[in-house]
Design goal:
It is built from four helices and three strands. By secondary structure, the chain is of the alpha+beta class. The chain has a three-stranded antiparallel sheet with strand order 1-3-2. Strand 2 (about 65) and strand 3 form a beta hairpin.
Amino acid sequence: MEEKEKSLMKRLIMECLPMTPELHRNRDSLRIDVIADAALLGSSFDKSGFDSILLELKQEQCLVTFDDKIVPTQFGINLYYRR
């Protein structure tokens, strides 16, 4: 995956998360929304690509995962919502 596409996918994931760390999204519903948004933008994105980007965002401390729940961190919110 190219850096430009990877950056787009990270942004889509973060934009589909709530803008507050007190709320969360279910992994499956988040994946469905992100894949649909990517398709609207003419980009292909599958489950393995989603999981890979999700792991990168977690390693960058932009989000945390609790079983099936995905929660944005304040760092991730600041990084992706202020651009």
